[in-house]
Structure formats: structure tokens, C-alpha cells
């Protein structure tokens, strides 16, 4: 994730935090809204993690990747969103240089993991629909867990190297500031690795998945017409077709528009708007949209995944504390 390219100066002694220009009531409202967004992000992703971890029926390769995505989104809700929104509200960094270094690194790590995990989910869905026999034989829980761990490890090494090369772990930051040192070359590399390459892969694979799912739906309709005289088969066909249509809707609604619409404004503004511009508020709004993707993901699960709805019902009714609750049917 490339936030900005900033050259630090030696004029720290001239820097002072701007005085708050909003009334106390507006100030409180802003912090309440920020806390609500962070809390929604944390609780939503925590519920996803509890559901996938607790119920053995959900221990599938696809859901392991959803668990990894929820973990990265949880970190965004715990660390990134509160600190970033606080910085926007205060217009000044008030948490000190050590916390600034932690904030900068944690800012990059879960967001890059999140983007690459979505790409892994696209690969998983493509293999499952395009090569079902290969998928059932070769893609096991161990394989997917290894892929998810390697994704986290790659992001950790990549972001640490990116920050170390650009001197982001030093304490030479002006009091009240928390800025990123990312040079032009590193910015282009980061753009390619964290956005262009994974998003291109996502678009290509989900386009193939869209075509495959559409062919499946067409085949189901043809079978329905062929067996139209048999009412029982007709009902089964109707149900299967609805499931195929729902799968197609999930893929189209979640993977492409929502995901890309959250990321595209961010990267466009940071490529077009220079740092220090008078329209920096556009950049700030784009960053908020980027982070809101972590808030939206659990909401999409709740809207479209029946297993998540059933899991929530069991969690909120405290049935997960019953003996052998992990064996309950949630599909």
C-alpha cells in the first residue's frame, strides 16, 4: 500500500499543531463516528473469524482464505482506522514517534495482505469451477493454510524492506507529524505489487468464473426444460439454478465492484493529486474508502452467505457454548 511520497525537512522547530477549528459538539460527533466505524469493523470480522474457526463444517479451503481476510481486516479495525481517523480529526499526530512507526508499518501490512488474499480467493474459485477434480484431490486445508501463511510472510518481508530502505523506522519525525518516506521508484513498485498485479489477476480470473457460472446456469435451464414433465426434478432444478444465480451474484457484487470501488479512488487520487495540495481532503476521503473495504466485507458475508447467517444466530443465542456445538450444521 503506497500512501504518499514525502520529503522530510529539518524545520521541525517551526512546526506546531494547528488549533482545533471545530466546536466541541462536532468534535465529539466525529470521534463517536470514528469509534463506531472501528467497532463495526472489529466486531464484524471477529464474528467471521469465530464462525469459521469454531464450526468444523466450515473448515474448507475457501473459508480458510476468508478467515485470513477477516484477520487482516480485523487488524485494520483495531489499529489503522482508529489512529488514521484520529489523525484526520486532530490534524496532528498526538501518539508519539514510536507509535508512529508502528502505525505506518501496520497500515501497510494488513491492507496488502487483504488485497493479496482476495486474489488468492479468486484463484481458489477459478480452480474449483474450472478444474473440480484437480481441486478436490490437490487443494487441501494444509495447502490453503500454507498459501495463506506464505501470503502473510511475503507481505511482512516486503513491507519491512520497503520501510527500511526508505528510512521509515527512524525517529527523525517532527513532533505532531507522522508521514511516510516513500520515494518515486518504491511508489511505482508498490503500486504494481499491491494493486496492479493482484487486481489484474482478480479481474481476469473472475471474468472466467463469470463465464463458467453462466454456462452452468444455462445448462441447468436446459436440463429443466428437458425434464419439465417431471415435477420433482423440476423443483430440484429450480433450486440448483437459484443457487447458481446466487453464486454468480456474489462473485459479481462482492469481488469486483465493491472491492475495486474501494481501492480505485485511493490509487487514482494519490497518483493525480500532489502532496501538500489544497484539495488534500479528496485524498483523505479516498483513504477512508480504502479502509472501509475492511468494514464492508463482513456485511457482504451477512447478506449473501447463508452459513454466516446461521453462525451468527448460534453465536448470539449462546449455543456455541453448548457441548459439541462445533459439530452443528450451519450449511
TrEMBL record:
Superkingdom of this protein's organism: Eukaryota
UniProt keyword annotations, A-Z: Cell membrane, Disulfide bond, G-protein coupled receptor, Glycoprotein, Membrane, Receptor, Transducer, Transmembrane, Transmembrane helix
Compartments in which it is found: Cell membrane
Main location class: membrane
Domain G-protein coupled receptors family 1 profile: 44-301
PROSITE patterns cross-referenced by the UniProt entry: G_PROTEIN_RECEP_F1_1, G_PROTEIN_RECEP_F1_2
GO cellular component: plasma membrane
GO molecular function annotation: trace-amine receptor activity
Transmembrane segments: 28-52, 64-89, 113-134, 141-165, 191-213, 244-268, 288-308
An annotated GO BP: G protein-coupled receptor signaling pathway
Family, similarity comment: Belongs to the G-protein coupled receptor 1 family.
Stated name of the protein: Trace amine-associated receptor 14g
Organism, scientific name: Danio rerio
Gene behind the chain: taar14g
